[in-house]
Specification:
With 104 residues, this protein is α+β, with helices and mostly antiparallel strands. The protein has a single domain, classed as Aminopeptidase (3-Layer(aba) Sandwich). Strand 3 and strand 4 form a beta hairpin.
Length: 104
Amino acid sequence: MSDDIALTEAPEAERYEIRVGGELAGFLEYRGRGDVRALVHAEIDSAYEGRGLGGRLVGFVLDDVRAREGMTIVPICSFVHKYLAEHEEYLDLMQPHIRAAFHL
């Protein structure tokens, strides 16, 4: 298996994907319209666990949202919520009332 990691958005499936050596290793599903994106579910295949791929995927998604000027997030997924608690540099991607609701 190759260690080549590719991160992409699959808008038709409303998700971001992480691939290792061309194989799907995980994804993060989102829902939303306009300038709000709810991050609803992240999953890393058990064969790829323990390699930090979940964190890389969430970081990629948050960087992509930041690049889309004016877009905000709602962190429904518990993994995303935990990531945000540990990476405060992304908290500005949430509207203040959303951040307060999630106690971040």
